[in-house]
Design a protein that fits this description.
This protein is an alpha+beta fold and about 210 residues long. The protein has a domain at about 40-70 and about 100-205: Butyryl-CoA Dehydrogenase, subunit A, domain 3 (Up-down Bundle). Helix content is about 65%, strand content about 10%. It has helices spanning about 1-10, 25-65, 105-130, 140-165, 180-205, and strands at about 70-75, 75-80, 80-85, 90-95, 175. A hairpin with a 2-residue loop joins strand 1 and strand 2. Helix 2 (about 25-65) packs antiparallel against helix 5, helix 3 (about 105-130) runs antiparallel to helix 4 and helix 4 runs antiparallel to helix 5. The longest helix is centred in the first third of the chain and has 43 residues, at about 25-65.
């Protein structure tokens, strides 16, 4: 009896079952599915980020172009199209005369307007990436990226022109307003939009 008990204790446990061996085509499909899921997730993140950046930059450009708080001189607010002064109950605004406006105002308006058009093209093109249609051989993402960089260049020229022409007029009662700040803020956002659209274009080309 003791001998049988010792022999039963010395018997080795049964070997573990061999690992499940998948065929190579199954392994390749699993790997391809994981890579595809990662690519789709990357594309979705880039799409959403680019659209949000394009929309915000375009919105800031529109607000800056149409608002009247570019320069604050005491109680007077000056914009690109008119200036306003306080009255008894509210502000009274007066439109600039075309003959009396400095050339810097015309240049700032023109380049901001061009930047607004390019930004709108970029925003529309990025929104169209969510829909499965193609305009011939035109890449929607690459066109949007180029349009964003063009918009950034136009905004940079406009803001640099306005800043350089008004800098010598600084005084203790003279300061830039929030419209001026929004104009400058749209410039890096257009660059960010272009920086997001180019990787998105590469991801779309890879997925295709």
């Amino acid at each position: 009896m003791p001998t049988l008990w010792i022999q039963s204790c010395l018997i080795a446990p049964p070997p573990a079952p061999p690992p499940l061996l998948l065929p190579f085509w199954v392994k390749s499909k699993v790997h391809l599915a994981s890579v595809t899921d990662l690519t789709v997730l990357t594309m979705l993140i880039l799409q959403i980020s680019a659209v949000v950046s394009a929309f915000i930059s375009l919105l800031l450009t529109l607000i800056a172009l149409g608002s009247d708080h570019w320069v604050l001189i005491g109680n007077l607010n000056r914009g690109l199209w008119k200036f306003c002064r306080p009255s008894a109950s509210s502000y009274i605004c007066f439109t600039y005369s075309m003959d009396l406006e400095p050339d810097s105002y015309h240049a700032t308006r023109a380049f901001l307007f061009f930047g607004m058009i390019a930004g709108a093209i970029s925003c529309i093109g990025l929104c169209c990436t969510f829909f499965p249609f193609q305009l011939g051989s035109i890449s929607k993402t690459k066109s949007s990226a180029i349009a964003s960089l063009i918009a950034a260049g136009c905004v940079l020229i406009a803001m640099a022109t306005f800043t350089g022409c008004l800098t010598p007029q600084r005084s203790s009662e003279w300061s830039y307003g929030w419209s001026f700040g929004l104009g400058w803020a749209s410039f890096p956002l257009f660059l960010i939009t272009g920086g997001l659209a180019f990787p998105l274009d590469r991801a779309v080309s890879t997925a295709a």
